[in-house]
Amino acid sequence: MQADLSPVIAATAQWLTRAYPAPGGALASALCEAQARQAVTVAAWLCYPTSMDAGLVELAGPGGSARLDGVAGAGPYREEDAWRTWVDEVVASWAACLLADPELARLAAAAVGEGEHLAGAPVEFRRLVAPDGRDQGAAALLRHPDLVAPVAELHRARLLDVLDQREPLVA
Known about the structure:
Elements: H1 6-19, H2 26-47, H3 51-60, H4 66-72, H5 89-100, H6 102-113, H7 126-129, H8 133-138, H9 145-152, H10 156-165
Helix pairs in contact: 1-2, 1-5, 2-5, 2-6, 5-6, 5-9
């Protein structure tokens, strides 16, 4: 069974870019979204390292953004925001950690390179691990350690454990 984490990745990246928007126009928004998506992809692949893990999330759902909305001070949930049900709190927290800490991002990207999701395919996370000046400017809020700290701190310890042990999480 090949499970697809793309709904979780898309919703969680969207939540991050809405909570920490790009300060600028369309190009800045696109660069910010690319960085959020790369961070969320790495976080999701670390959190759900096997097809079985991803399949369970696909069946059960990731939990939604309710707690994150409260921590980040987001507005009330509206009916048209049904995509928020696919936001994964742990993945958002881990992605915030990666965006705020370049060394942690490098370690995490290297760890997913050894995992099942890539299956030998070359994937580059350049905007996450080596952002240029335009990337950093576009994601100034998203990469600011103090601003993302409330979200990042929710599950930072678990991320550090996973990266330190390099053992897959058990679903």
